[in-house]
User: Fold ABC transporter permease from Salegentibacter mishustinae.
Amino acid sequence: MLIYLRVLKESFNFAINALKNNKLRTFLSLLGVTIGIFSIIGVLAAVDSLEREIKGSLSALDNSTIIVMRFSFGPTEVPQWKRQQFPDVSYDEYQYLKRNLPNTESIAYSIGVPNESIKHEDVTSTGVGVGAVTHEYYDIEAFELEDGRFFNESESVSGSPVIVLGHEIANNLFGNFDPLGKEVRMYGRKLTVIGVLSKQGASLFGGSRDGQVFLPANVARRVYGDNNKGVFPQLILKPEDDVDNAEYIAVLEQQLRNYRGIKPGDINNFFVNQLQGFADFIDNITGQLNFIGLIISGFSLLVGGFGIANIMFVSVKERTNLIGIQKSLGAKNKFILFQFLFEAIILAIIGGLVGLGLVWLVSIAASQFTGDFQFVLSGWNAFIGTAVSALIGLISGIVPAISASKLDPVEAIRTGM
Assistant:
């Protein structure tokens, strides 16, 4: 064990000397490894950050959550002209499914409405996202309230003029004052503030709850009506934990088909979207991005590998005499082999660490320019970068190391004289 530590120490010293004595040659040789590792880890870090942000935006809802609406989350075989004829889901259908659909933990009705302005006294917030939902939405989505409460079933059914403010909206309208019990104006109506959501921070899709308000869906129904194509209602369902999702969806579709009077053989005029399917779609896309990035970056690593091999062949040639002396003093072939192999690996790791450092600096700079979207260099990606660097060094150095270990000591000493 000690001899290998000694070989490692000597190889490290040789690698450092190579860097010091042949700065330009070593720099050019390691540049390929540095660029290759920078490219690979940069791609992995960017895709990981994107995936983390997307899934973070979806994390409020459980993957088992089902959304029924006239739109599809993904590609569909239904032609566009037919999809445009699909009716919106209705409040009556929400009530019907709530009474008749078994194995349902919770079902909520939501209306996607345009952004609005909200006013308190002489202070106005514009472009405010409005969540018009029934009270069950609180049970489905992972809401955290900083103060107050969410509206209850009675307020939801009656369409009481109450509202829950996002953290940013509450600060804009009330500053340091307590907003609970105060009135705001929206849709030309007075709404009483009953709750304030905890700060969430921005999300990738701009859907942060900080800039939203939530009010009973029946308030929005009075404003927009039930046949307004400018809004898109949806049903949000959460099955019970021990329910088979495929069976549950089959029952859901049959219940809704019966309610709408869809004949056997006719296609559904609604879409049942699963968040799990959307999450799988995201995984597939990020996997493809990673694969394409790795293929492109692999060419840089190939160049880097040739650079390492080149510098090692030169190193063997320059130290032929030294190799002969070491062998004449009893050094075994594997000692020489490991000496040059470790040197190649150390050189490659140095190039890889420089590449990782560049990724880290770029991730910090990119995060500053993109605001709340954070580029993160994870420990796992750093490990991958180091491991790939070592592998490149191993592959690039194996042939020069073998050629060095097989040198005849007499010939090696004579060559160096």
Observations:
- The CA atoms of residues 257 and 263 lie 8 Å apart.
- The longest helix spans residues 275-318.
- Residues 2-57+281-416 form one domain.
- The chain has a mean pLDDT of 80.
